[in-house]
Design a protein that fits this description.
Largest sheet: 3 strands, antiparallel
Number of helices: 7
Strand content: 15-25%
Shape: elongated
CATH superfamily of the largest domain: Ribosomal protein L7/L12, C-terminal domain/Adaptor protein ClpS
Distance between the termini: 25 Å
CATH architecture of the largest domain: 2-Layer Sandwich
C-alpha cells in the first residue's frame, strides 16, 4: 500500500461516525454515485467481503492468572496504558480477568497487547 493511501486511511480512521456519514454524502454528491452501488461492485470483485468482516474496534481484556514473578511489571504496564494509580492498577491485575479498554482502535489495542505481553501478562482482543 502506498504511503499516501496509508496516510488517508489513518486520517479517515480518526473521523467520528457523524463526520463519516457527512463525508459519504459529500462523495456521493461529488461523484454522482451511491455508496451501496460501489460496495456491491467491489464485493462482486471480491474486495469488500474481507474488509467488511474485519473489526476496527477491539475490547482489550487482561486475562488471569498472572504469574507472581511478573505482577510488578504487569502492574506498571497497566498503569501506563490506563493512566490508573498504583492501587487501582494493582487491584485490576489481582482481580483479573478484567477489561482494560472496552473499545480501542486496532492499532491502540495491538500496542496495549504488546506492552502487557512483554510484561508477562496474557491479553485477549475481542473485535466489536
Amino acid at each position: 500500500m502506498s504511503t499516501q493511501i496509508e496516510e488517508l486511511v489513518e486520517k479517515l480512521s480518526q473521523l467520528s461516525i457523524m463526520d463519516m456519514a457527512k463525508l459519504k454524502t459529500a462523495l456521493e454528491d461529488k461523484w454522482g454515485v451511491k455508496a451501496a452501488v460501489a460496495v456491491a461492485a467491489a464485493a462482486t470483485a471480491g474486495e469488500a467481503a474481507p474488509a467488511a468482516s474485519e473489526s476496527t474496534e477491539f475490547m482489550v481484556t487482561l486475562e488471569a492468572p498472572i504469574p507472581d514473578d511478573k505482577k510488578i511489571g504487569v502492574i506498571k504496564a497497566v498503569r501506563e496504558v490506563t493512566g490508573l494509580g498504583l492501587k487501582e492498577a494493582k487491584e485490576m491485575v489481582e482481580g483479573a480477568p478484567k477489561v482494560l479498554k472496552p473499545s480501542a482502535p486496532k492499532a491502540e489495542a495491538d500496542e496495549i497487547s504488546k506492552k502487557l505481553t512483554a510484561a508477562g501478562a496474557k491479553v485477549t482482543l475481542k473485535g466489536l
